[in-house]
Fold this sequence. Notes:
single chain, alpha+beta, four-stranded mixed β-sheet
Amino acid sequence: MWHCKPVDTPISATKKLSFTEGEALGEEDSTKYRSIVGALQYLTLTRPDLSFSVNKVCQFLHKPTTVHWGAVKRIIRYVKGTLTMGPQLRRSTSTLVSAFSDADWAGCVDDRRSTGGFAVFFGPNHVSWSARKQPTVSRSSTEAEYKALANATAEMMWIQRLLTEFGISHSLVA
């Protein structure tokens, strides 16, 4: 896919992936799917913009279909257009630890579980991120958001303790 046409987003904002859509991939294509998704998981270590979409395609590793394969191809097309992107660390006098979180209430059409995510910053630098399906079904959008916020807060507290151990003074804002 080196000569593919790049896209602006790694996953469609309107189309939801499901276990029931598309035809099951053959053995060889399923192995290729798992291999590429594994490589994309590795890429999320330096590309937080891929976390949500890679999380979505990882949910279908056990039985991928043609629709899931199309979603993986879209992520690759996005990566192709954004090869020069990555985290940039800048020197700053700010020692503020801050976080942003979000959740999509009942975003999975198969099990109605939400996906929550967060991004943590130290000053202007993006230092930690996560996107994962929540382990339980939320009864409201508020509950889904609260769970995502709780995960972000736990991460901020860990970073705060880490900075304290390193002897770095910091301030905290959620």
